[in-house]
């Protein structure tokens, strides 16, 4: 189905956007709330996850409240979502950088780079958002406010999708190096008689194998959006409804995907269970998985407990 979107089509897209953005808002808001409530999670590594979740939460919030049919709300939605969505995928690069510098380069100075991370993420997001304003003439496209001129569309692609795919490539390359190094460490451990070293290496490898899928979150969230932007640039005025639905739905779910993959790790689940022991009756706590009740903290090798923190 191609052509100009009908009012009914736009209504469907707005409903998809509102529903998916609401899920992302709840998911990322939950991670923000956990960081605020649980002091044991306030380590540098999870602080980066907190900033990621905060960016996702604000991106989802402005995506929900924006009304492309009204001028002021159109601008508010367009620029605010652009700023915080750029910030979101840039925070994923800082997490990848931290893992690489800690695991591959064995550096312990990542906490000293927090100010640089903020300057890099918020500064780059601001610059990209300001540049996007050049040549823009906003109008509604489905459920979002998009640029309507050819120049504006090109600027939007340059200031969002090119940095996005740059971040995807960087994350993928970085995680590949980290996993390759831990693979080598695991092979070395197999030939050693030190059983504890082998267990540590396998635990690290298990966590890193999961982290290797993180770049797929950005790919899954923005692949349809990239295709839709290219199609809209090549054939303006010919909208593909099903592609627009996939574009809006997957992009709006990015915050939910990030909150599950980055934030809802074993350390967060354990903190929730420990609090539940204080407030929930025994008959309700029985429904919690057994592995949360007897989790050995030395067995976990997640973002909350990077090796750099163990070395300090």
From TrEMBL:
Leader peptide range in chain numbering: none
Annotated organism of origin: Morella rubra (Chinese bayberry)
Primary site of residence: membrane
Domain G-protein coupled receptors family 2 profile: 13-266
Transmembrane domains' residue ranges: 12-36, 48-66, 78-99, 119-135, 155-178, 211-228, 240-264
Example GO BP: cell surface receptor signaling pathway
Top-level taxon: Eukaryota
One cellular component (GO) term of this entry: plasma membrane
Compartments (UniProt record): Membrane
Gene Ontology MF terms: G protein-coupled receptor activity
InterPro entries attached to this UniProt entry: GCR1-cAMP_receptor (IPR022343), GPCR_2-like_7TM (IPR017981), GPCR_GCR1_put (IPR022340)
Protein name: G-protein coupled receptor 1
Keywords, in A-Z order: G-protein coupled receptor, Membrane, Receptor, Transducer, Transmembrane, Transmembrane helix
Keyword Protein biosynthesis: no
């Amino acid at each position: 189905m191609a052509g100009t979107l009908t009012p009914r089509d736009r209504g469907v897209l707005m409903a998809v956007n509102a529903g998916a953005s609401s899920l992302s808002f709840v998911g990322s808001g939950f991670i923000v709330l956990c960081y605020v409530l649980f002091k044991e999670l306030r380590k540098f590594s999870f602080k980066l996850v907190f900033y990621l979740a905060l960016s996702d939460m604000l991106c989802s919030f402005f995506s929900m409240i924006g009304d492309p049919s009204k001028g002021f709300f159109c601008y508010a939605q367009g620029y605010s979502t652009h700023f915080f969505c750029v910030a979101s995928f840039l925070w994923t690069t800082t997490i990848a950088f931290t893992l690489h510098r800690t695991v591959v380069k064995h550096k312990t100075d990542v906490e000293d780079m927090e100010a640089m991370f903020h300057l890099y993420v918020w500064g780059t997001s601001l610059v990209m958002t300001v540049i996007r304003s050049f040549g823009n003439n906003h109008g509604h496209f489905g459920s979002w406010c998009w640029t309507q001129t050819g120049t504006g569309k090109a600027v939007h692609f340059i200031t969002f999708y090119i940095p996005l795919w740059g971040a995807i490539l960087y994350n993928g390359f970085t995680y590949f190096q980290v996993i390759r190094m831990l693979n080598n460490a695991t092979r070395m451990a197999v030939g050693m008689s030190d059983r504890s070293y082998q267990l540590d290496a396998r635990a690290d490898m298990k966590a890193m194998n999961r982290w290797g899928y993180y770049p797929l979150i950005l790919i899954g969230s923005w692949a349809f959006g990239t295709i839709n932007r290219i199609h809209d640039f090549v054939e303006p005025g010919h909208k593909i409804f099903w592609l627009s639905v996939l574009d809006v739905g997957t992009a709006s779910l990015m915050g939910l995907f990030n909150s599950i993959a980055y934030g809802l790790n074993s350390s967060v689940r354990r903190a929730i269970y420990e609090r539940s022991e204080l407030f929930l009756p025994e008959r309700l706590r029985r429904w919690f998985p057994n592995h949360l009740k007897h989790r050995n903290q030395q067995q976990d090798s997640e973002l909350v407990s990077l090796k750099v923190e163990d070395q300090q």
